[in-house]
Amino acid sequence: MTNKWTLLCLAALLTIMGFPSPSANAAATAFGLDADRSEVAAGDTVRLTVSGKGLSDVYGYEAVVTFDTDQFTFVSARNALPKGSAGESNGFSITPVISGNEVTFAHTKVGRISGVSGDQPLAVFVFQAKKAGERIHLAVRSESRACRCLGGQVRAIPSGQHLDPPRQRGRRAARVGPDERRRDA
């Protein structure tokens, strides 16, 4: 009877205190946008760096940047994740997908390598100002990942999970493995 009473008291105590959660103790992950300049003239380019703070074993990411199509033209996007060792490939990136005023870019590492952790740059987006003779002020706020002319959102993919790239309209993706032959119909 004493054993049952002790177990009941212990169970009640653990229920009242709660169980420690590893995610509650982990640092919060945050993403931000940093522009290389605060003002641009027509024809100038601006580079936006998407960065992650407090990353934990990130193997891939998807970044969506919204921009004002009346003021900017999308030029390019590239991966900024650092390579691990000299022989390590930097992974695989999708071709940026432009849909209206949004650019989607994704990258994943490949092979049996670990993800990145800590504070790391993820991607660099390059835009060109359109309007001749006008200056455009960029107000990038990293905390909310938003700004007046350019904004964005980022989704980090931990190791062991898969990234589904966005589908391009009118195109179908087909898997071709080493034992399969591509058939053009």
UniProtKB/TrEMBL annotation:
Domain of life the protein comes from: Bacteria
Statement: the UniProt record of this protein carries the keyword Signal: yes
UniProt GO molecular function: carbohydrate binding
Domain annotation Cohesin: ranges: 35-134
Renumbered residue ranges of the record's region Disordered: 157-185
Signal peptide start and end residues: 1-26
Keywords from the UniProt entry: Signal
InterPro entries assigned to the protein according to its UniProt record, in alphabetical order: CBM2/CBM3_carb-bd_dom_sf (IPR008965), Cohesin_dom (IPR002102)
UniProt-recorded name of the protein: Cohesin domain-containing protein
